[in-house]
Amino acid sequence: MKTTFEGTTVVAVRKGDSVAVAGDGQVTLDKTVMKAHARKVRKIYDGKVIIGFAGATADAFTLFERFEGKVKEYGGDITRSAVELAKDWRTDRALRQLEAMLLVADRAKTLLISGTGDVVEPDEGVIAIGSGGTFATAAALAYLDSGGALDAREIALRAMKIAAKICIYTNENFVVEELP
């Protein structure tokens, strides 16, 4: 399974008591921009959980819906939901073929969920996925390390702007969701 997907960048930044997840709006097919204003970051579970996704669009939506069902099933526990989704993803014949990744966050945790069975919580409050993910991660970590007064939302937006300047598969049509 590919671990980097062309056509998107999603970053999650946790600072203080808030978390922000930002994603760009570009969808590409090979070398063509198919859509510029896709919404890859959304709130679920009555606005208590944020989810962002990267990968093949239909695959990402399938996983998004599966994760949302798990969150409801496990009463908002994103860790249990993520582990159960990862188990299903690895063992279900149809789900195994899906090429996407998810970032999920609630007030306490941020997690990356992959089709290889990974459920990762970042050490430093920043994690990103997609083709511009490493650029966004580096930028967000630099802003966090600077000790400035920027909040999680502003750091996520600035990190996305830097990723969009470097990654040809990332545009500046950002959607940001925040849990203060």
* Average pLDDT rating: 91
> Mind telling me the C-alpha Rg?
15 Å
Q: Tally the helices: what do you get?
A: 4
Q: In sequence order, what are the helices and strands, one letter per element?
A: EEEEEEHHEEEEHHE
Note poorly predicted spans.
Answer: 1-5
Give helix % range.
25-40%
Q: Could you give a short account of the major beta sheet?
A: 5 strands, antiparallel
Which properties best describe this structure?
Glutamine Phosphoribosylpyrophosphate, subunit 1, domain 1; 180 residues; 4-stranded antiparallel β-sheet; 5-stranded antiparallel β-sheet; alpha+beta; 4 helices
Describe the structure in your own words.
With 180 residues, the chain is of the alpha+beta class. It contains 4 helices and 11 strands, in the order E-E-E-E-E-E-H-H-E-E-E-E-H-H-E. Strand 5 (41-44) and strand 6 form a beta hairpin. Helix 1 packs across helix 2 (78-91).
